[in-house]
From TrEMBL:
Name the record gives this protein: PIG-L family deacetylase
PANTHER family noted in UniProt: N-ACETYLGLUCOSAMINYL-PHOSPHATIDYLINOSITOL DE-N-ACETYLASE, N-ACETYLGLUCOSAMINYL-PHOSPHATIDYLINOSITOL DE-N-ACETYLASE-RELATED
Annotated source species: Pseudomonas veronii
InterPro entries, per database record: GlcNAc_PI_deacetylase-related (IPR003737), LmbE-like_dom_sf (IPR024078)
One MF annotation (Gene Ontology) recorded for this entry: hydrolase activity, acting on carbon-nitrogen (but not peptide) bonds, in linear amides
Source organism, top-level taxon: Bacteria
């Protein structure tokens, strides 16, 4: 997760996630249609917690189908509190992965069989590392994998870079890529024309799945706490938690 780099105007009621009329028209898709039987699922998260924000509900559904799973965390998320003495980078580099383990446990992920790769790239500077990122991702992919990564036009520099690197790696290896918007849902409604609505599909979630996803998000204690001494608001803003209550997740196919 990254700081809410959204202008104040984007935090009002007219955000895409709660105002765009196109949302009601997005066709539903079943996880079976996204991931063929026996295929491996690969989730690529720019920062710890992005996998929960983007597809925590979908991961729950896929885990019940017993797909092999690989999680690639590109960074350790240690730059989430710049200038903070309470949450310095050296502390976050240890805490954030621990929070991810707890979040995955709360989602009900099979931790005994989930493979997890930590990329070790520098948080908040991924645009400069796009080529080595794509090489790293390709190294761990196999032909036939189904990959879920952040949308390459999400509006967050790290998310966009990971989306582009994932697309290159998938093309090279022969894996299938689906893109996941995160920050894009917090654009203003007038920016909705930039969303590729024709590619959007809706994965429906039941009440239990939504509750588990929210419970998992709250495992990121560091992201729920800002640093008042330097005027730093919580990284996991309330508006993000509100959006996570929606009974669906969006995938770009």
């Amino acid at each position: 997760m990254k700081p809410a780099s959204l202008s104040e105007s984007r935090r009002g009621p007219a955000q895409i996630w709660n105002s765009a009329p196109q949302l009601a028209q997005i066709p539903a898709i079943h996880p079976h249609s996204l991931v063929p039987a026996g295929a491996r699922v690969v989730i690529i998260a720019p920062h710890p917690g992005d996998e929960v924000l983007a597809c925590g509900g979908l991961l729950q559904r896929l885990s019940t189908l017993e797909h092999p799973m690989l999680l690639i965390s590109i960074t350790d998320g240690s730059a989430s509190h710049p200038g903070s003495n309470v949450w310095p980078a050296r502390r976050l580099s240890v805490v954030r992965p621990q929070e991810s383990v707890e979040a995955l446990r709360r989602l009900g992920m099979p931790l005994h069989s989930l493979k997890w790769i930590r990329g070790g790239f520098r948080d908040d500077a991924l645009a400069a590392s796009e080529h080595p990122m794509s090489q790293l991702i390709a190294r761990y992919l196999q032909p036939g994998d189904v990959v879920f990564s952040t949308w390459r036009n999400d509006g967050n520099a790290d998310h966009d870079a990971v989306g582009r690197a994932s697309a290159k790696a998938c093309s090279l290896v022969g894996a299938r890529l689906y893109e996941l918007p995160i920050w894009a849902w917090h654009w203003t409604a007038r920016e909705g024309s930039m969303i590729p609505w024709q590619r959007a599909r809706k994965v429906r979630l039941d009440t239990w799945s939504v509750a588990r996803k929210l419970h998992a998000a709250h495992a990121y204690a560091s992201q729920l706490a800002g640093d008042p001494e330097i005027g730093l608001a919580p990284m996991l803003a309330q508006v993000l938690l509100e959006r996570m209550r929606e009974p669906y997740e969006i995938v770009f196919v």
